[in-house]
Each structure stands twice: as structure tokens, then as C-alpha cells.
Amino acid sequence: MSLVGKKAPLFSAGAVVNGEEIVENFSLEQYIGKKEVIFFFYPKDFTFVCPTEIIAFQEKLAEFEKRGVAVVGASTDTEETHLAWLMTSKDNGGIEGVTYPLVADAAKTIAHNYGVLAGEWNYNEEGMLTFEGAPIAYRGTFLIDKEGVVRHETINDFPLGRNIDEMIRLVDALHHVEKFGEVCPANWEEGKEAMAATKEGVATYLSNK
Length: 209
Prior knowledge:
Elements: E1 13-17, E2 21-26, E3 36-41, H1 49-59, H2 61-66, E4 69-75, H3 79-86, E5 102-104, H4 109-113, E6 117-123, E7 129-137, E8 139-144, E9 150-156, H5 164-180, H6 199-207
């Protein structure tokens, strides 16, 4: 089930903030009424595609921040594992230098509530609880507005890395819609023509292409 148009599931969990400090009760609730949030899940610490994405978000962090957007990552690893990875240099496969929060979803409840857990619990013939699939998160990305409502979501399979510039484009589109009341057509980018949400608006836009 898609979360678009619905309130983002809130949580309180351990996290590493500022690249070095473990906090016990991190929550997205702190951003409601203040900032939009790009909340993304990745499969595992100390892997291969994941550090490229995490570092790419860090490289674009200033672009998100100047737009008033917080970036928060999460996986089903523990906060101690997050911290160990953050303390490992890039030359050794680490993500040293990442400063935005990384949430620890060791119980897998956050990933489950966001619909990105790559499997599910079930009972076998002996009545024992089992897990079918991979007990880690897909590459889910959620754009959450200041009211705590999900405005965009994408979910990638494990080997498919994200395009971070597309996340910035979506933030720009959301801000344009909120500021001007226009809608953003296919391939819209900041500075390009948008259009009114009417038949006339569509006709005018298409005739100008």
C-alpha cells in the first residue's frame, strides 16, 4: 500500500547524529511544522551500493538544507554498527564524514510500517514464527512535507541505486506547486515553465514546447 497522501508513520528509535553521537529517541516528529524531510532506507551497513548513495546524499546535503529539507537515512542495522561504519574511512569502505542522522531499525518495525521490508513473518507447519524473504529494507525514499504527509515515494530493489538529483528536483517541484499553485509537467526542472491545472493550461504548455 502506498503512503502517498497519508501521514508518515512516526517512530522513536536509536540513531547516530552528526556522524558521531548515538541518541536513544530519535523521531521525525521534530521536523513537523518546520522542515520537509527526505527519509530514505538502505539495505545494510558495510555493503557496496549503499555507501555510494549515503555519501551522494552527503555531497548534496547543502542543496537540501538551503531548501529547508532535512535528510535522514535508516537501515535495519543497530546504532552501534552505524557508528562503526561512520568511523571507518572511505578508503576502507566506510562513510566517514556523513553528518545527517542514520536511524537504527533493528526491530524492523519502521521498515515494515513504511512498506519497504523485503519479506514478512509467517508461521511454519510446526507453529514456529519464521521470516520469508530478506529481513532488511529495500531502497525506499520518501518526501515528507512540513505537515508530516508523504508527497512522494519510490522503492528500488537492492541492486538499483538512487538518483539524488531527482530527489532535489522533486523538492523544487513541491515548493513550486506550493508557492505558485501551478502543476509541474514531465521532466520539469527549477526555472522551466510549469502550467495551470486546467485544459487551457495544458494546451498552452504543449503549444509552447
